[in-house]
DNA sequence: TTTAGGG
DNA sequence: CCCTAAA
């Protein structure tokens, strides 16, 4: 048998792509920041939210031996246990954003907690990759937070769990571990009639788990008042499943700048295993079977207000794209809103689609993470103190959450030196997929540069010298949608990440734009050619893609914010291996590119013909009011390119061809309005002269 | 916030 | 599409 020199990497953490940023407001301004009554959020809410976000594959109906997973809220080296209804405010750490995190871990009752993830140092492995300063919290709340807050708000309103909160916003996750205790179905009645059903086996994460951060889910709630959360309480078949740590930053609106004053670590139950654990992921053969599903009932925010007719059409359309989209839905929205996308122009196009590739079937092997059910317990009211539900009053206190990274401590990979980059990626992918549930692919970054050649061996790439291993990083990227995974069996319930833009599926204009033909625009200055009125077309915002562009990832790869492998060493040592200090990962992902369709171009032309070239906001409101992803700047830019396109020869044009007729109109309108503009200037100048 | 332009 | 100076 041939002996291979093997390289062992311990993944101390990885940075997930930015959560999609919030969509732009209708008026095209920046990201929407949503605030929530987060202070009112109880630990369970947070856990549920986080769990939903993290959870991977899971199927309530599958015969999965659901792993027992618990989501634990950690505060400064402490695992907080009481998750039932402890108000956030009680947590002293609320003010110090950096030390709080959520973990999904196996429920290991007596295992002592070895929390090496909570070190305050950002320079050590133990420190959360996403540690940020409190000021950071207050200043840089990004998209993730927006989502979180938005969702939290929803949750809060519905949750009957009592949560006391103060303006101080210091929350206390006294008991955030979702214990696996109940195996029966638990129904959580929310104040507004929303129901959270906890199924003993349902995995949390997965595709079927309504993503709390998913706007779609929110919509679902809004429409149906029902949210079903499946929480698994099954025993953990794999004792060695690594802990996924999700660093969540909490920032109090009023107190973010205060420093964390958690000085008395709780000694309550620890639910973590000793973190150092080596898992041989090579043995895990994952089955691809599950995919993110889009719940047909959920509607995109942008569509909820459309009239029935339009909506109907839209849904129809959506169904048409279901398969394509579902495979691309990215689990993490990333949303700075939307947090994830096809960004990858820089990646040779391979990563363009975002989102998700077929997810491995974790039910079988990894069993999928299951949210353990202490939350269910709490939700069920079994341990909710009387009167708890009374305190869901909303006040101005907000807790801002920002998840900057998800960590997977102690994930070791052993791979032959002559293995290819591709195999390395696969190996890492398998491990990560098992944890995250798929929807991601791995990118390899070595010495600051992305290694794209999958066929190159590690040796060839220079990744064989131990001393250089610190220069190796991995990035989580949206999976290309190649492969067209079939819809999951339960495809009926699709869960779309809310702000997570769904991967842009180069939709044909006709399918993207719904023309209800209900209104006709009449232009004064120019003839109304088609009467196309896009003001009512359903925006295709749902086509947006969720994850951060490759460029973004790449750009930050050097910061080692991604998976940072370290030379194999004993777990204990690993915990203290310094990790390069990550710089702020503030890069806002570039919005997904969404070529204008002919319909849109026509609408734009029509609007400009009437309004002129200097009133982009009006153009936006007139013709693209419902297309939230088109800002007035976008329209202005498009016009600019249209003019350019119209001036060049047809041979030089690229992309979807624009009818010459439209281009002619563009030139005509442009000339007309340019002249008008010139006249205005002349007029203005002459007036000025007269005044002088 | 909008415009207007450069990148 | 992004970024920004100006308005």
UniProtKB/TrEMBL annotation:
Domain of life: Eukaryota
A biological-process GO annotation: green leaf volatile biosynthetic process
Occurrences of domain HTH myb-type (ranges): 589-647
Gene Ontology terms: cellular component: nucleus
Main localization (coarse): nucleus
Keyword DNA-binding: yes
Short name of one Pfam family: Ubiquitin_TPR1
Protein's UniProt keywords contain DNA-binding: yes
InterPro entries for this protein: Homeodomain-like_sf, Myb_dom, SANT/Myb, TPR1-6-like_ubiquitin, TRP_plant, Ubiquitin-like_dom, Ubiquitin-like_domsf
Alphabetical list of Gene3D superfamilies matching this protein: 1.10.246.220
PROSITE patterns documented for this protein: HTH_MYB, MYB_LIKE, UBIQUITIN_2
Domain Ubiquitin-like: 399-469
CDD domains named among the record's database cross-references: SANT_TRF (cd11660)
Subcellular location: Nucleus
Listed transmembrane segments: none
Gene Ontology terms, MF aspect: telomeric DNA binding; transcription cis-regulatory region binding
Keywords recorded for this protein, A-Z: DNA-binding, Nucleus
Matches recorded under SUPFAM superfamilies: Homeodomain-like (SSF46689), Ubiquitin-like (SSF54236)
Ranges for domain Myb-like: 588-643
PANTHER family found in the cross-reference section: TELOMERE REPEAT-BINDING PROTEIN 2-RELATED, TELOMERIC REPEAT BINDING PROTEIN
Protein name, entry field: Telomere repeat-binding protein 5-like
Species of provenance: Solanum stoloniferum
């Amino acid at each position: 048998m041939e002996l291979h020199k093997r390289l062992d990497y311990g993944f101390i953490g990885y940075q997930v792509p930015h959560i999609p940023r919030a969509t732009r407001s209708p008026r095209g301004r920046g990201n929407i920041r949503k605030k929530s009554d987060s202070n009112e959020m109880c630990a369970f809410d947070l856990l549920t939210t986080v769990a939903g976000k993290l959870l991977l594959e899971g199927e309530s109906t599958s015969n999965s031996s659901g792993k027992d997973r618990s989501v634990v809220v950690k505060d400064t080296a402490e695992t907080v246990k009481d998750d039932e209804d402890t108000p956030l405010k009680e947590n002293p750490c609320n003010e110090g954003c950096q030390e709080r995190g959520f973990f999904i871990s196996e429920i290991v009752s007596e295992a002592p907690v070895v929390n090496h993830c909570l070190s305050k140092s950002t320079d050590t492995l133990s420190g959360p990759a996403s540690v940020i300063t409190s000021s950071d919290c207050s200043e840089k709340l990004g998209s993730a937070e927006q989502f979180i807050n938005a969702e939290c708000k929803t949750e809060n309103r519905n949750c009957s769990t009592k949560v006391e909160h103060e303006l101080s916003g210091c929350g206390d996750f006294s008991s955030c571990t979702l214990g696996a205790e109940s195996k029966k179905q638990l129904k959580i009645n929310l104040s507004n009639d929303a129901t959270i059903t906890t199924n003993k086996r349902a995995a949390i994460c997965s595709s079927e788990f309504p993503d709390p951060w998913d706007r779609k889910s929110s919509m679902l709630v809004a429409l149906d008042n029902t949210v079903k959360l499946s929480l698994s309480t099954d025993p953990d078949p794999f004792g060695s499943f690594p802990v996924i740590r999700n660093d969540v930053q909490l920032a109090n609106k009023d107190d973010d700048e205060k420093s964390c004053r958690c000085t008395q670590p709780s000694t309550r139950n620890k639910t973590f295993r000793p973190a150092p654990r080596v898992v041989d992921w090579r043995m895990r053969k994952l089955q691809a079977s599950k995919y993110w599903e889009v719940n047909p009932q959920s509607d995109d925010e942008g569509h909820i207000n459309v009239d029935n007719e339009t909506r109907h059409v839209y849904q129809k359309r959506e169904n048409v794209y279901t398969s394509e989209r579902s495979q691309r839905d990215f689990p993490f929205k990333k949303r700075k809103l939307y947090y994830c996308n096809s960004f990858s122009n820089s990646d040779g196009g391979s990563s363009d689609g975002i989102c998700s590739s077929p997810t491995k079937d974790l039910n079988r092997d990894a069993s999928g993470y299951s949210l353990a059910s202490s939350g269910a317990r709490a939700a069920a009211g079994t341990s909710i103190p009387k009167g708890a539900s009374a305190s869901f009053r909303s006040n101005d206190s907000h807790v801002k959450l920002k998840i900057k990274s998800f960590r997977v401590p102690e994930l070791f990979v052993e791979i032959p030196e002559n293995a290819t980059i591709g195999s390395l990626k696969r190996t890492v992918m398998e491990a990560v997929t098992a944890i995250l549930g798929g929807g991601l692919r791995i990118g390899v970054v070595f010495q600051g540069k992305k290694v794209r050649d999958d066929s190159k061996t590690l040796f060839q790439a220079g990744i064989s010298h131990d001393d250089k291993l610190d220069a190796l990083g991995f990035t989580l990227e949206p999976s290309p949608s190649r492969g067209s995974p079939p819809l999951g069996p339960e495809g009926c319930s699709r869960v779309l990440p809310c702000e997570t833009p769904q991967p842009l599926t180069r939709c044909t204009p006709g399918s993207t734009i719904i023309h209800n033909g209900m209104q006709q625009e009449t232009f004064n200055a120019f003839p109304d050619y088609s009467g196309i009125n896009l003001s009512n077309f359903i925006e295709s915002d749902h086509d947006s893609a969720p994850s951060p562009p490759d460029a973004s990832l790449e750009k930050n790869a050097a910061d080692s914010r991604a998976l940072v492998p370290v030379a194999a060493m004993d777990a204990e040592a690993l915990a203290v291996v310094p990790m390069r200090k990550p710089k702020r990962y503030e890069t806002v992902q570039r919005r997904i590119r969404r070529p204008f369709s002919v319909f849109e171009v026509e609408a734009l032309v029509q609007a400009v013909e009437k309004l002129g070239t200097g009133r982009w906001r009006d153009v936006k409101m007139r013709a693209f009011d419902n297309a939230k992803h088109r800002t007035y700047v976008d329209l202005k830019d498009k016009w600019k390119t249209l003019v350019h396109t119209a001036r060049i020869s047809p041979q030089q044009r690229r992309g979807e061809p624009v009818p010459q007729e439209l281009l002619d109109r563009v030139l005509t309108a442009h000339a007309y309005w340019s002249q008008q503009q010139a006249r205005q200037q002349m007029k203005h100048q002459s007036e000025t002269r007269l005044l002088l």
